[in-house]
């Protein structure tokens, strides 16, 4: 291979290498935009830009070789008469092995965070609640319930401004629904859960309360102390007999009011200061007026007995 063929081969290799660096750099930048981790994204992005800059430098190097490479080479290596113009460029396709760099996008494992299991996938009645059942009436399989609505205001058998998200403080919560085809005398149950924990239950024989009929409007209310409305996910399950009919959920946010102000009446212990009336014994100083006993000294005028001496002078008259 002569100098001309060597420079020509070097130029081709530089151009191919530049194209390869361009491709790798662009793919690196594109894959960096899909990464969620800041440090990895910056590393991938900076690596891509370095590849692009390297490709630009290789193109400039190839242009410089095409313009000044051959004259400079002939200055130090004079041309020989035997010039072979058969360049062996066949090894160039081996550069395609560098495409194995595409293995880098293996960092796409982040979507594993999408595990959000439901609170109660299969509602059931706890055995402790089932032990309270009083009815032996078989439920009507055609009994239906509407979706539950939740509200903190309940008027005229309806929930006012129903919602699924509430903020503390909360006084009470009502689950409203409509129903139909409920057999009188069947066992009816409502279970209230907070984050999967049973916090309230209501079970009774249908028709025993407020003359419940086979169809109409119904509700289930929970009104614990305000401090029991902890933030979390709440769920209400309605059962007829052992079969659940409808499930509704709502969210409570914010910290509930603390019950510490109710402990302030313990300050009533301060009335123990009522012992200060025990200082009323200071009134025992009132016996000071017992100095009135000094009038008992008045008997001293008994010295008037000296008047008994008056008879003595008359006796001397004889």
How would the blueprint of this fold be written?
Blueprint: H1 3-32, H2 38-76, H3 127-130, E1 144-145, E2 149-151, E3 154-155, E4 158-159, E5 165-167, E6 173-180, E7 187-194, E8 197-205, E9 216-222, E10 232-240, E11 243-253, H4 312-315
Parallel strand pairs: 5-11
Antiparallel strand pairs: 1-6, 2-6, 3-4, 6-9, 7-8, 7-10, 10-11
Helix pairs in contact: 1-2
- Shape annotation: rod-shaped
Give the overall pLDDT as a whole number.
74
- In total, how many beta strands? 11
Derived structural class: alpha+beta
Would you mind describing this structure in some detail?
This protein has helices at residues 3-32, 38-76, 127-130, 312-315, and strands spanning 144-145, 149-151, 154-155, 158-159, 165-167, 173-180, 187-194, 197-205, 216-222, 232-240, 243-253. β3 and β4 (158-159) form a beta hairpin. Residues 91-102 and 269-318 have low confidence and may be disordered. It has 2 domains: 3-101; 127-253, Immunoglobulin-like. α1 packs antiparallel against α2 (38-76). With 318 residues, it is α+β, with helices and mostly antiparallel strands. The chain starts with a helix and ends with a helix. Helix content is 24%, strand content 20%. The relative contact order is 0.10.
């Amino acid at each position: 291979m002569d100098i001309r063929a060597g420079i020509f081969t070097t130029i081709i290799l530089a151009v191919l290498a530049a194209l390869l660096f361009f491709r790798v750099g662009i793919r690196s930048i594109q894959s960096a935009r899909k990464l969620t981790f800041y440090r990895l994204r910056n590393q991938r992005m900076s690596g891509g830009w370095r590849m692009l800059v390297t490709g630009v430098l290789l193109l400039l190097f190839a242009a410089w070789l095409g313009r000044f490479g051959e004259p400079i080479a002939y200055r130090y290596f004079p041309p020989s008469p035997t010039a072979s113009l058969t360049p062996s460029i066949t090894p160039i396709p081996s550069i395609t092995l560098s495409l194995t760099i595409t293995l880098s996008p293996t960092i796409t494992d982040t979507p594993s965070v999408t595990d959000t299991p439901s609170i109660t996938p299969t509602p059931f009645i706890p055995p402790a609640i089932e032990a309270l059942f009083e009815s032996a009436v078989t439920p009507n399989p055609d009994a239906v319930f509407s979706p539950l609505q939740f509200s903190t205001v309940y008027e005229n058998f309806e929930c006012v401004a129903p919602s699924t998200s509430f903020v503390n403080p909360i006084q009470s919560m009502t689950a409203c629904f409509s129903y139909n085809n409920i057999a009188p005398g069947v066992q009816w149950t409502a279970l209230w859960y907070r984050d999967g924990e049973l916090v309230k239950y209501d079970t009774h024989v249908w028709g025993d309360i407020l003359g419940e009929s086979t169809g109409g409007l119904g509700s289930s209310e929970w009104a614990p102390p305000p401090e029991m409305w902890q933030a979390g996910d709440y769920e209400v399950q309605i059962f007829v007999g052992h079969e659940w009919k409808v499930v509704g959920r709502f969210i409570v946010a914010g910290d509930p009011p603390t019950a510490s102000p109710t402990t302030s009446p313990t300050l009533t212990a301060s009335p123990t200061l009522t012992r200060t009336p025990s200082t009323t014994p200071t009134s025992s100083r009132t016996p000071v007026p017992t100095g009135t006993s000094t009038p008992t000294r008045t008997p001293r005028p008994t010295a008037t007995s000296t008047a008994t001496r008056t008879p003595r002078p008359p006796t001397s008259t004889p």
